[in-house]
Amino acid sequence: MKILELGFLAFGPFTEKQLDFSSGHEGLHIVYGSNEAGKTSALRGLGQMLYGIPHICSDNFIHPHSKIRIRGLVRRDDGTLLEFIRRKGRLNTLRAADDATVIEESHLRSFLSGVDEGFFKTMFGIDHASLVQGGEEIIRGGGDIGQILFAGGSGISDLRKIQNELRAEAENLFKPSAQKPKINKAISDFKENRKAIREAELSVQEWDQHDKALRHALEEKKSVDAELEKKLSDARRLERIRDALPVMARRKELLNDLEVCADAVMLDDDFSKKRRKAFTTLEIVKNEEKQAIHNLEDIRQLIGNLEVPDTLIEKADFIEDMYQNLGSIRKAAKDRLRLVGEKITRESDAKDILRGLRGDMTLDHADQIRLEKAESFRIQELGSVYERLKTREENTREEIARLSLIKEQIKAKLSKMAAPFDTDELRSVMEKARQHGDLEAHYQNQRLEIRKAEADANAGLKKLRLWTGTLESLENLPVPSPETIERYEQGLREAEDAVKKQQADMDELEHALLENKGRIEQLRLEQEVPTEADLYQAREKREQSWQFIRKADFPLPNDVAETYESEVQQADTIADRLRREADKVVKKAGLLAERETLKNKFMRSKKQAEKAGEAFNGLKKEWLDIWEPLGISPKSPREMRAWVQKQMNLATQVSAIREQHIKAENLKTQIDTFRRELINCLEKLDEFTAGEEETLTHLLEKSRQIAERMDKLRASRDKFSSELEQRDVELRERQTRAENINEELSRWRSQWAGAVETLGLDADATPGQANAVTDDLKTLFVKLKEANHYRLRIEGIDRDAAEFDEKVMQFAEHDAPDLLKLPTDQIVTELNARLTRARAAKTQWQNLEKQRQKEEKQLRTAKNKIAKIHGELTAMCEEAGCESYESLPAAEEHSARRKEIQVRLEEMENELRKLSAGATLDQFIQDARSVDPDSIDPHTDQLREEADILGQKKSEIDQTIGKEQNEISRMNGSARAAELAEESQSILAALETDVEQYVRFRLASTVLNQAIERYREKSQGPILTRSNELFTHMTLGSFEGLRLDFNEKGDAALVGVRPGGREIVSVDGMSDGTADQLYLAVRIASLEAYLEKNEAMPFIVDDILIKFDDERAIATLEVLARLSEKTQIIFFTHHRHLLELAEKCADDGVLFTHSLSNGGSL
């Protein structure tokens, strides 16, 4: 298919823009557009013409979506034409030329030969970005021949990126010997669940024992809870009564105070504030009233002293207009002097020019020699034609002489050359050998690698501690699996963590015991806190002394009475301190109880730490036992995992060494085969002496030199023969061109004589003389036009000045006769000054009038405020029951006192309600009065001690319940097993999805690699051969060609060959530009192979040469020109110099240029 016409009727920046691609058989069409000329829009429009305009379109910045239209005219290889218009829309977007008749998309698809939009963009389109990306991929791929050919054939420039992404996605799901990928983790979780299910099967009898113990502990806990709640409830009741007694006493005092001030009026909370505000405001307003009266007197006096000329102000517009025009009049007067000078100068210049043209003519008659524009243009055009014809005539004469000389030189060279002989068989053997790369070097490298690998393996074996033996026995060593090592690593880590946790718990409890001891010691140092035991001992001692006194039947000495009195005081002091320091007593009792609890916890933690240590030592022994059959004394699992990895790596090295030996033997066989074939070919050509012993490399080099010698000889003869024919054609064309130029010169002389006659010149006058006369005529009439312009401006200035003077004098005569004797400009200046003073007086009068009205308003406002405030104060007196304003503060104090008592009374009652625990206030007070205050503290202490004992018992029962519940929960095999089984099914379901996705990625990667390999096998011969030719041409012979070699991994890779085979360049050693040219060569070779079997499609190229130097750009354009013999090429560019380069290397029937700006073809 060929695109004949592309029309942007309304698209992007274009309106009715037509591009005609119909010229030539297929043609190389270069479309030039400067920056912002619409090249990018044109590229998008070409594709959208064929495949439709997308829903989101960015080319509507001039034409709305509904108006977008692209016209196309295409032709199939069988000559069938299709003209259509593409519009934007969802349905029926393909129309006939009338933009109304709908064309089915299938009709256009038949022209596209089944090529969809994606394939069209990759196979038949290339831009600079994809070219650079293709070159970079070649470098990153290390010259992988399969990837290069597949990327070139498919147009996919980021093929390696796609392969890496597929591999990365698969490894994110699963990776051998890894833990983090999703599938690896799911498998590990599934194994752990299966293990937990097996452990969940337990004995029913053991479960019954724990269940009975749990029920007994729950029943006992219920009884202890009830008794504990009763003790605590009684203690809290006594404590609430104790706390309420002082509040009740204060409440009674407040009730008595309230009776004293019961007659005080209850005023609002803000009453005092409002009264103070009213007094303050009244004083302020009275001052404002006085100030307003004073200000009014001053303003009235100032108004009386002002005089305002209203008549002058009424005519302010006229005065201001005259004053503004005065500046223009003065400036015009200055300009008039300059304009007069300019007018005289222009007239003088015009007279000098006219004197040189017609000495007998004056300026008044100059129009008689005015030249029409068409006549002037015709003379200039004929002059340009003459210069071009003379240049072409001279160039053609030189070309004829040069071509004649070249023909004779070529004939002489051809006569001296000998005929070459056939080297096809030799080339065939050389090509087969070259396709395998440098076999001898590869063989030597393979041997070196084998020796190095064996040395590395032996060195690694020596470094592998803990075990001794040979590499062969190491390969089959039955070491534990990574999973087993990981299981022991996790188990030992958990056991060690358990030991550390128990030790940390013991340290924490020991620290808590020390802190408890410190707090008890702190209480003792502050002041020994009495306990109930101290009180009991003091009372017991006092009772013993009293019994001794009662039983004595003789007079007692004074010291006995003093001793008894001291003991009574001691007991009373302890009792008083127990009541007074109740909080410290409670705190010390709590600390003593806490000490016992911490001691019990410390002993339990110590036993658990011993159990954890035993478990850790047992697991550690198991770890040592699994390595004992191997004769290895293992280190930690983490270290042994690294040891096993090293062992596996060494085993892998041993296997790789065996494979390397096999590869080396294969290479040796290939070398011997190719040597025999080359020797046989050389003997046939008499280029080999029997008995010589040469390496394959030497034989290939010798064969290459012979083949090159014959190629150069044959190429030289072909080149000279072709060049001789070409020069003969060019010579005949130049001779015909010389005859045509002579005929054109004759026609020009006839036209020239008639054209210069109007200038008064002879037919022999040169174009330079004619141009000089036309230039003088143009200058003459420009000077006359400028002189007339200055004359008109001078007359206008004089007229404006007279009218201004008349207006000013008329105004002064009527409104300011005292100024008539002054000049006009002074009259206007004085009138403007008088107007300014009048306006200032007027403004001052207006401001004073506004101030007067403002002060009168303020005076009225002040009087109203005073009246209002007096009314408010009178109402406040009535509210407080006062006869005058001065009595209000005393009424406020009585009201505040009554409110304060009521608030405090309410606070006391609220506090009592909080202590009443839901009872009414009266009930609680009655209940509190029924209790003896002195018995509250002893009774409360007794209840608290009993509650502490019960609390400790409850804590022990709770621990028993928790322990039994944990055992039952751990032993609930059926429920736990079901949960674990359900979790296992969820893991399997997720695993199934991930495995399917993993298979997709792996399958896609495999299919892509196989497709690359199949394409390489299929296309390697013809496409690589053609790529070789194109690459050599594009690089200007910097590379002799391409060939296959082997990289360090033994894989076939594409390399470049310098002329004479003197240097092999791998793709990663090529410059970026050379890699780009290699990719382009493969793309074009693949496209040519496609076109041999399929209908042609336009090849769309977008500025791929912007980083090529001029020489390589020309070489590439030559390749594209030859490709245009097979298919149409449309080349878009921003760079004009590419057009010039293309014209140097492409014939007129092949190269066609177009412009995106108005004008079509260049």
UniProtKB/TrEMBL annotation:
Residues covered by the YhaN AAA domain: 1-207
Keywords carried by this UniProt record: Coiled coil
Coiled coil keyword on record: yes
Coiled coil: 379-456, 485-526, 657-684, 838-918
Transmembrane segments: none
Pfam family, one: AAA_27
SUPFAM superfamilies hit by this protein: P-loop containing nucleoside triphosphate hydrolases (SSF52540)
Protein name listed in UniProt: AAA ATPase-like domain-containing protein
